[in-house]
Amino acid sequence: MDETALRIMQLNAQGYCCSQIMIKLSLEDMGEENIPLVRAMAGLCEGSRCGELCGVAGAAACVLSLYAAKGSDDEQALDCYPIMLSQFMDWFRASATEWGGIRCEDIVAFQGGIKPEVCGNIMLRSRETILGILTENNLDPSLPREHANNF
User: Fold this and answer.
1) Structural domain boundaries in the chain
2) High-pLDDT (> 70) share of the chain, %
3) Is the overall model pTM greater than 0.85, yes or no?
4) pLDDT of amino acid 151
5) Cα 35 vs. chain centroid, distance in angstroms?
6) Alpha-carbon distance 110 to 11, whole Å?
7) For the purposes of burial, counting CB atoms within 10 Å of the CB of 78, is it exposed (0-12), middle (13-18) or buried (19 or more)?
8) Of 42, 66, 43, 44, nearest to 57 (Cα)?
9) What single DSSP character describes residue 141?
């Protein structure tokens, strides 16, 4: 088991849901803490608590946005931002056949219930994909946008 898988298990054991774990991992990469953001990410858990889009997929969009979207009046979204979102969602849709779909409700039904190991694997693979997409776009996951050299 690698360090990220262990960290996912620890955060889950501490009561964080999938979307909160995804953003916490990214904040930890940057050496940042943002309690209100982590709290807000709970709104995406379990398909926004109604079984819709998997919270991991929604959180992945938020993670990519953290690095590339507009965040203040004097900022603009990076040109690569919509492409990165599209790349991730294309990957997620293609991979979702393995776990039962892109909706939380479909994943749970396909897996025969909520299974932490399934959700953990989705988080782990999604995180690897996000990190790859960031790297391909010359974005350093360890740097908040405001500290990155290319902004």
Assistant:
1) 3-69+76-137
2) 97
3) yes
4) 41
5) 16
6) 25
7) buried
8) 44
9) T
Q: So what's the pLDDT on residue 68?
A: 96
Kindly indicate the confidence band of residue 113, based on its pLDDT and cuts at 50, 70 and 90: confident
3-state secondary structure of 29: helix
- The separation between the first and the last C-alpha atoms of the chain, rounded to the nearest angstrom, is 36
CB 30 within 8 A of CB 145: no
Predicted confidence (pLDDT) per residue in 42-55, tens digit: 999 987 877 789 99
Residues in the chain, total: 151
Q: What is the pLDDT of residues 47-79, one digit of tens each?
A: 787 778 999 999 999 999 999 999 999 999 999
Stretch (H or E) spanning 23: helix 18-30
Task: State the DSSP code for 49.
Answer: I
DSSP codes of every residue in 80-128: THHHHHHHHHHHHHHHHHHHT-SBHHHHHHHHTS--HHHHHHHHHHHHH
